[in-house]
Amino acid sequence: MGKNKSSGGGKGDKGNAKGDEKDTGLKKEGVEIKVRHILCEKHSKKEEALAQLRAGVKWDEVALKYSEHKATDGGDLGWKAWGSLLSEFQNAAFELEPSSMASPIIGEAKTNQGYHIIMVQDRRKASKRK
Questions:
Q1: Most buried in the list 6, 13, 77, 115, measured by CB within 10 Å?
Q2: TM segments (predicted)?
Q3: Is the pTM of this model over 0.70?
């Protein structure tokens, strides 16, 4: 369960150490992710929440106790396409493999809203809406 620390980025994948095969498996454009997050204003609170998750406490319980955003929904943000999230959050989220709330693969991001603990539940081709 590694940490994903993103610092801006941009649209290119320059310097991605994960390799070409991994890049194609986690394509960003034309893909939507079902994403959840736990938002903490303070770094210390985020660290407490991470410790709880790593100790095996259920995602929903940690979100309810620590998150300052949509905690009652377990931090569910729903399906999000590339370009619909804050860039730091988006960069971290789109690098994550889907996982379950019982055994989440965790990413992290710092935005102007605070510290985010991120997990992706699913990934699909983006739907075309007009």
A1: 115
A2: none
A3: yes
